């Protein structure tokens, strides 16, 4: 395996990004996250019972077990294949790194909402949105459908792209996959519902800690990317977006999601957040951004452009850190 913060690992990450952009996640190939999800679901059914204290203890145990075993299995697989031949180790690590990324998948999922929405086919747009959000989508009008898609792109720029790249540079595919295990745990059990309030507490808090720095760096690189895009796209509004994001992001229910969402809202001149419904229950989310335009289908590809600028800027930031380290050494 490549040394952390090295040019070799940076090259491997670039190869993984290229692979993800080229083929995404082919359904015919096994995916590590699917395996993580199966293990988490089985442990949750077996362990999520008893007193609140017992649930919290088992939740901590499950979190540690899933995260550590995921990282160790990735490391052992790469090491075993590298002993057979070094190129096998490199290929395995590159594929595992690519499996942690969702650049193409996130773009395709968002465009699957944008296309029917632009054609005025609201039922199809609602169905496509329901595949990527947990909120109720029945009856949503165009602005709310567009809001759901834009929020998904903004939030998942961190979870599906920049945070895996961040941890990959620190520890290669094993650490990136350990991060994906944390993220998968949070998405499955990190809820404040009666069922998961105690059992998923450790998973939710670990996910908050893991995403703290990547989320804030991503807001910065989204802004930097928008500064470049604004040279040919006068519709973006980077001026004042940094200060506004710092002011508004802490209002979000999540300590991290507010940073990319607030930044995207201000860059596009729209407002995100508001009222969501989950299985009929009302959930009020902080409103981020100043609505200078009504949300519509065109804002979804605009958010995708910001996503690309954000992860490219993030990768450039990581490359600069590697080059600085190489220079100092």
Summary, kept brief:
This protein is mostly helical and 329 residues long. 70% of the residues lie in helices and 5% in strands.
Describe the structure in your own words:
- By secondary structure, the protein is mainly α.
- It has one domain.
- It contains eleven helices and two strands, in the order H-H-H-H-H-H-H-H-H-H-E-E-H.
- A two-stranded antiparallel sheet has the order 1-2.
- The radius of gyration is 20 Å and the shape is globular.
Q: Flag low-confidence runs.
A: none
Strand content: under 5%
Helix content: over 70%
* Number of separate strands: 2
Give the SSE layout.
Layout: H1 7-23, H2 32-47, H3 52-84, H4 86-99, H5 103-118, H6 122-130, H7 142-189, H8 201-229, H9 241-248, H10 258-268, E1 272-278, E2 281-288, H11 299-328
Antiparallel strand pairs: 1-2
Helix pairs in contact: 1-4, 2-3, 2-7, 3-4, 3-7, 4-7, 5-6, 5-7, 5-11, 6-7, 7-8, 7-10, 7-11, 8-10, 8-11, 9-10
Which descriptors would you attach to this protein?
single chain, two-stranded antiparallel ribbon, mainly alpha, globular, 329 residues, 70% helix, 2 strands
């Amino acid at each position: 395996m490549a040394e952390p913060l090295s040019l070799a690992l940076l090259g491997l990450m670039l190869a993984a990004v290229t692979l993800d952009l080229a083929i995404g996640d082919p359904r015919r190939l096994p995916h590590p996250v699917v395996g993580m999800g199966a293990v988490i679901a089985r442990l949750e059914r077996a362990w999520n019972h008893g007193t609140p204290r017992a649930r919290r203890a088992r939740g901590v145990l499950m979190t540690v077990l899933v995260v550590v075993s995921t990282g160790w299995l990735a490391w052992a697989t790469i090491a075993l294949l590298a002993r057979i031949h070094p190129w096998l180790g490199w290929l395995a690590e590159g594929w595992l790194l690519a499996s942690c990324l969702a650049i193409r998948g996130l773009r395709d999922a968002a465009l699957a909402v944008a296309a029917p929405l632009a054609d005025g086919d609201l039922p199809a747009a609602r169905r496509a949105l329901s595949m990527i959000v947990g909120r109720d989508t029945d009856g949503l009008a165009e602005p709310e459908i567009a809001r759901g898609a834009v929020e998904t792109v903004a939030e998942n720029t961190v979870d599906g792209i920049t945070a895996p790249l961040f941890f990959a540079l620190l520890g290669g595919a094993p650490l990136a996959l350990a991060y994906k295990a944390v993220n998968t745990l949070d998405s499955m059990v990190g809820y404040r519902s009666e069922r998961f309030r105690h059992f998923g507490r450790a998973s939710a808090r670990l996910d908050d800690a893991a995403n703290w720095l990547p989320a804030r760096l991503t807001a910065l690189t989204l802004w930097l990317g928008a500064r470049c895009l604004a040279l040919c796209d006068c519709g973006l509004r980077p001026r004042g977006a940094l200060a506004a994001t710092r002011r508004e992001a802490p209002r979000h229910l999540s300590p991290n999601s507010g940073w990319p969402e607030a930044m995207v809202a201000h860059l596009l001149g729209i407002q995100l957040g508001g009222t969501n419904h989950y299985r009929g229950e009302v959930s009020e989310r902080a409103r981020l951004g100043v609505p200078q335009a009504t949300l519509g289908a065109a804002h979804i590809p605009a958010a995708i452009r910001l996503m690309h600028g954000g992860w490219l800027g993030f990768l450039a930031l990581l490359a600069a850190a590697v080059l600085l380290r190489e220079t100092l050494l």
